[in-house]
Structures are given as structure tokens and as C-alpha cells.
Design brief:
Mean pLDDT: 98
Bound molecules: NADPH dihydro-nicotinamide-adenine-dinucleotide phosphate
Shape: globular
Structural class: alpha/beta
Number of helices: 14
Low-confidence stretches: none
Number of strands: 18
Helix content: 25-40%
Largest sheet: 7 strands, mixed
Distance between the termini: 63 Å
Amino acid sequence: MSTFTVLNPATEQAVASVPASSAEQADEAISRAAAAQPGWRAVAPGERASLLRRFADVVDAHNEELAQLEVTGTGHPVGQARWEAGNVAAVLRYYSAGPERLLGQQIPVPGGLNVTFKEPVGIVGLIVPWNFPMPILGWGLGPALAAGNPVIAKPAERTPLTAIRIGELALEAGLPEGVFQVLPGKGSVVGQRLVDHELVRKIVFTGSTEVGSKLMADCARQVKRVTLELGGKSANIVFADADLEQAAATAPYAVFDNAGQDCCARSRILVERSVFDRFMELLEPAVLGVAVGDPGDPGTEMGPLISAEHRARVASYVPDGAPVAFRGQAPAGPGYWYPPTVLAPVGADDPAFTEEVFGPVVTVVPVEDEAEAIRIANDTPYGLSGSIWTRDIGRALRVARAVETGNLSVNSHASVRYWTPFGGFKQSGLGRELGPDALDAFTEVKNVFIATE
Ligand code: NDP
């Protein structure tokens, strides 16, 4: 059996060797899921709810272990990794309220009774990327299980360790065999098999727009349900009347969190021209102040990039002669480090300004007014998130309604809370995860008429 070596991105040392599953093993996992499906669906709602709560408790009890796996396996700073493990438990707990609330409707009709049921969609294939291995796993897993579906997760090849451990914890918590399986392996082998297999009824994919659109086309052949969370090139719009100190102090974290490997990264900062120079003066110390270093140190705010290849890709957006306004520090020596980098001024067609860099590189451009800010913010195939900084509530609402994106924050950069919906416009995705309606993405509505006459 072939294996994949997981490297610590901060040291380049091998951490673990993980078997790469074959297409045949994917078929076996699908058979196990199919065998588990009727039993899982038949578990009484209250019992399924308490199993999910027990699962959440077991994940919480292993928070530190999971966090440390993520520190060594992905280079995430330990504070962030603890939050990520906690997020898995929180999402499981939130959707544990689902089984008892999968409500249908009673619709008035002549001659009988008409009711609707929310039936489980079937086996769910959950394809997870390397940038947030734990949260993105949890966002699909929680609602899919709550709605009565078995789940097969395919973690990213580089970052399978926490998913594998969470799969073991599910069994420890008492989830029946086959209800949640983790299948490490190549996307083109295992992921593709989940997409192609007729018994898998739904694919939840997070990753690149390129792979996502291909999977959507593949799913179309079987009219397979699909939820996509794809790339982003989000705008952080700063108007002249904003609290500039706060806007500048927080802007680095809106793009350099997770070393910029975040689909919500606000990687285009659009600043009203009259305050552009002042904003840049305030931004510089904020960027230089980002603590980049050992992910195991609780004071670290930014770790390394995921791999040497990815670092080379990020670096290609900052060629010799690029307009680097200023940049922060990064450790020398082993590890896939890249310093927080601010580019200004950049041309409208500079790839760093138009493409998803997925690294700690941000572009800052001046805008004349509200209309130009909206035009530039929308001048991208993406539409995932964004921020608006202004003290004018009317403008905040006008701009929030005009920007074509799924998640916006005003005077804040918060974009993901498990109890609010998350997802993208345009090529940033299809469908929504999280929030009160996520169970709908894992159920089919069945309408039943019962004649009374
Ligand atoms: P991919 O889209 O290639 O990978 C995401 C997931 O899909 C991984 O689990 C991958 O497996 C799997 N996959 C790949 N090919 C297939 C396939 N044919 N069928 C089924 N599953 C498949 O992203 P990359 O890791 O290559 O990252 C490339 C770029 O994508 C990044 O630099 C970034 O710009 C963007 N990206 C965006 C993310 C987001 O959150 N929106 C997340 C990750 C990446 P495997 O690991 O084996 O390749």
C-alpha cells in the first residue's frame, strides 16, 4: 500500500506516515456506509441527539491532543488550533439539536391530509482541504450526521491526522461502525471515487474553484447534490469616516490569519483616497507587529505556509521589483516561512490584486468614493466575504447590499460563526454551510398526501 508522509511545515521534519487509500478501499468504505445507513436513520431522534452530544464531549476531552496534532501536522499556531478543535465540538453540539427539530409541514388540501418529511439525503462524501482541516470537517459532519446520513470524509493528503483521530473519537463516543469513516488518500483517487460512486448521494467540497467546478460537472452526470466552498478575493473597504486606528490595527489579522491560507482572507484593502496615506502609516506598525514564529508558542499569531510548493506559488506573486510597501518578519532556517507582505501601489491587472494568493500577501489601493469601492470590490469572479469600515450606518448598509459576496462584516472582520450561514456568491461556491438551515442541505423534502375520503 502506498503511503504519504506528513511533514511539519515549521521544521520540515516527518511527523507521520499515513496510508493512501485505493479506489477499492473507497468502494469498501461506501459499502460499509450503505450497510450502516438504515440503522443510523432509524436511531430515535433523541438518541441521535445524545450521541452527537457525547461525540462533542469526547472531542472536547481531546482538545489539547487534537490541537497539538494540528500544530505539528499543519503549522497552525497552538491558540488557533485549540480554537479549531473546540469549533468541531461546538458544531456537533449545535447540530445535536437537529434530529428532534427536523420539522415538516402540514399543508391544507381538499380530501385528505398533506404532510412533508425531511428525509436523509443518503451517504455524504465530505472532501476537506488542508487549510482548516478540523473546522471544515466539522461543518459538514455535524449537520450531515444530525440529518441521519452516514459520512465518509476525505481529508487533504497533506493534513489527514486530525480527521483520522476524530474518526476514532466518533467510535469511542458510541457512533455505530460505518456511520462516520475517514478515508485518507489522494483527491484524484479517493475523492474522485466518492464523486463517481452512485451510492454517494451528496458531495460537500471545500477547495480550489478549479477542482470544485470539475467536481460539480462530474456530479451533474448523476444529478448528485453538491455543496461547494471555493476560493475568494475579498475586499476590506475603508472609508474616510471610519475609525482608522481600529481599521488599520485589525486589517493584518483579516488577511494574515492562518498565514493567509484562508478563503475569507481580505486580500484587497480599498481605502478612500483622502485617508490613504494616513491609513498606510497606521498599517505599517500593525503589520510589523504580527508575531510570526514557532506554532507551539502560545504568543505566535502566524505560522508557516503548508508546503515548499505552496510557498513557491505564493512567492511568485511578489517577483523581484514588486511594489513592496513594507513587510513583516519571518524566521530563517527550516520551515516554509513567508513574511507578511504589503503591496502598494499595484496595477489593476497585477495578479497579486486579481488572483487568490492564499498566502500572507495583501494589496492596498486607493478608491475615490463609494461607487468606485463597490465597483472594484465586485470586479472579481469571487464573492465570499468582505469588510466595510465606516461610521455612517446608511453607507454601511448600502455598501453591504451592493457588494456581491456571501459574508460581510461592518467595522469587524468576523465572518464565520457556526450558528450563522456561510458561503459564497459567484465562483466562490454553491449553497450554504452552517447556521440554522444547514440541515436542508442534507435532507430531501418528501411530500405525502393521505386521502381521508
Ligand atoms: P484542491 O482543490 O486541489 O484540494 C482540495 C481537496 O480536494 C483535497 O482534499 C484534495 O485532495 C481534493 N481533490 C483534489 N482533486 C480531486 C478530485 N479530482 N476529486 C475529488 N477530490 C479532489 O486544493 P489544493 O490543495 O491543490 O490547493 C490549491 C489552491 O486552491 C490553493 O492554493 C488555494 O488557492 C485554493 N484552496 C482554497 C481553499 C478554500 O478554503 N476555499 C482550500 C484549499 C485550497 P488532495 O489533498 O489529495 O489533493
